[in-house]
Amino acid sequence: SKPRVSQEVLAMGVCDSVKALAQYDSPKYVRIPSVTCGCVKISLYLAVAVCICCIVFIYGFHQKTDEVNSSVRTSVKGVAYINGKIWDTAEYTIPMQASLNLMSATNSFFVMTNLIQTENQEEKSCPEYPFVNAICSSDKSCVNGSADIHSNGIQTGKCVNYNATVKTCEIRAWCPVESMGNPPEPAILSSSEDFTVLIKNNIQFPKFNYTMLNFPQNLNTSCTYNKITSPLCPIFRLGYILQEAKQNFSEMAVKGGIIAIEINWNCNLDKWYDCSPQYSFRRLDDKKVKPGFYIRHAKHYKLHGKEMRTLFKAYGIRFDVLVFGTGRKFSTVELIRNLGSMITYFGLVVSAFEIALCASNCCRWSKSPFIKIYNQKKYETVLNPNQVMYVSYVDEPHVTLVKKPLKTSLQHAQSSIVESHPVKFCHAGSCCTSKSNENHDKEEPDESMRSRKSNKNNDNEEHELKQPLGQEACSPDCQKWCCCGECHSTERHNEQLCCRRKEGRCITTSESFQELVLSSDTLKKALLYKDPFADLTDSNIKNQLRHLAYKQYILWRFGSFDLEDRAVIPSCCRWKIRNTYPKPGNNYSGFEKE
Q1: If the chain, 594 residues long, is cut into consecutive pieces of 10 residues, what is the mean pLDDT of each piece?
Q2: Residue 136 CA to chain centroid, in angstroms?
Q3: Judging by DSSP bridges, how do beta strands 398-403 and 388-392 pair with one another?
Q4: pTM beyond cutoff 0.85
Q5: Are residues 369 and 82 in contact, defined by beta-carbon separation less than 8 angstroms?
Q6: Domain boundaries, the chain
Q7: Given 3.40.50.970, 2.60.490.10, 3.30.460.10, 3.30.300.20, which CATH number is that of 67-120+185-328?
C-alpha cells in the first residue's frame, strides 16, 4: 500500500542520514613529483605566511579594541592694546555664548578678532535698516504688528524717512538699529594671532580601565606646540594653528571662521608601547559659501533712569576640539579568530597553480604528455550509466567508452579511451581466484602450483593474442563486425561486439580464459569464497556459475567491478560461457537483463 511505501522511503532516508553522520569525506589530490613545483609551492606558502603575519601585527588584528571617552578644558591667554583700550581674556573670549550656539558641542571656545559696535541703544520707535523688504513708499507697504525674518523689530504701520533718499517702515526696537555693513578691515584684533590656548584633555578606555592626560610627565609651562620640536606640548599659539590648517590669520580674522583641533588617541596599550596624542588642524566652514562666524551680545546699563545697551557684533574664530581614537590591547581570542579567517589565504597558492595549469592548457604546452596525464588524473567525468557502455579489446591495453544511442554495431561505433593502465589489466587474473587460492594453499598444493603455472603463461598468451594470424582469419560467412570468427549473429547493435579490434585468435581459445572464466573449480572456489555455505549440488548451480563467470570476465578484462553495470561482454565470450553453463531451454533475455 502507499502508506507502507512512504514509511519505507522515510526509513531509508533516515538510515542514509545516520550513515552520513558516521562518515568522513576527504578531498582527492593529484600529486606532481617535481622539484621545481615543490620549491615554488614552499616559496608561495612562505610568502603568504609572511603577509598574514605582517597584516596581523601592522593592523592590530591580534588586539582587542575600545573607543575613547574624553573631556576637554581650555584656557586662552593673551592681552592686546588697541585704540587706547586693553583687550584681555574677558573681553575677547565668549565660551558660554559659543557653547549655546554649538548646543551640545561643549568642547569649543571662541576668540573675537573683529567687531561692529552699536552704542546707546534704547527701546523706542525708529526707521528700519533699509533692506529689500523694509523699503516702502507709503504706510500701505507697512503692516502694523508684523515682523520680517531679517527685521530688527516689530512694524508700527508707518513709512518714515531713513535718510534724505530712502524711506523704510518704522519699527519698535532697540534704536538706533544695527548697521548691516561689512566689518572693519583689517580686523581690530588681528594681534590675537599671538594669543595662546592651553588644552587639557582627559581620556579613558573603559574596557581596559586605562586613563590618560595629554600632559607629558615633565611639562615645561613655557613651551608652545610645534609639530617637529614640541609635538606633545598642550599649549598652542593661535597663529600656528591656522598656519597648520593652511589658512591666513589676517584674512580669516576679518569675518571669522571655524577651525577644528583634532586630538587622535591611537593607543597601543601593551606594556612595550606608549600612548601619546597626535594633533592636527583643519578649517571646517566653507570659504566660498558664506564664510565667517560671528556672535551678537549686548551690555546693558541705565542712563538717567532709562535702560540702555551697547550691541556688539563680534566676529571671530571658533575652535572646536575634536577628540577621537582607539585603544588596543593583546587578546588571544582576537588573534585566534583573525588568524582563522586569514588561513584561507593559503588557498591562493592552490589557485595560482590551477591558473598556471589552466594557462598551460590554452597555450602550446597543452599537447605535452605531462598536461595530458595531469588532465586525466585531475578530472573524472561522471556520465549517466544509462547512456554509456564500456568495451575492452584483447589487443588494446585500455578501456573504451561508447555513448548511446548506437547507429551502427558496437564494434564499429565511435569511441573514446577512458583509461590506459597495463599493470591493472595484466594482473587482473589474480583478482578473485588468488584470494581463494591463498586460503587453500596448504590443503591443495597441486591446485596452487597449477594456478601459478597458468599465471606465469599469461604474458605469453597475451602476446600471442595480439599477433594477427592470417591462417585463422574469419571465415567468409562470419559477421562483418567479428574479427575472431567465434561471434554469433544478432540484430541488436549493442550486442554486436567482438573480443578483438583486429583479426586474430579469439580470447576464448586462450588458456587464461579457460582457467579464469570457464574453470568450474575456479568459479566454485569463488562462489564458496563469497558464501562458505553455498550448496554446490543445487539444481540452480549452473545459473550461479554462469553469472559468476560473467563477473570473472569483467574483473579480468576491466580490472574493477565499478564498470560491471555498463561493461559489455563480447558476443564470442558471452556465448562460450552460455554453452559451458547453459540455461534450461536456452531462453536468454539478453546480456543487459541477464
Answers
A1: 65 77 79 87 92 89 91 92 86 61 64 92 92 91 90 92 92 91 89 93 93 89 92 95 94 94 92 86 90 90 91 93 92 90 88 82 72 76 75 89 85 78 40 38 37 40 37 49 90 90 92 92 89 85 90 85 77 92 78 51
A2: 70
A3: antiparallel
A4: no
A5: no
A6: 30-60+343-378, 67-120+185-328, 129-176, 388-420+480-593
A7: 2.60.490.10
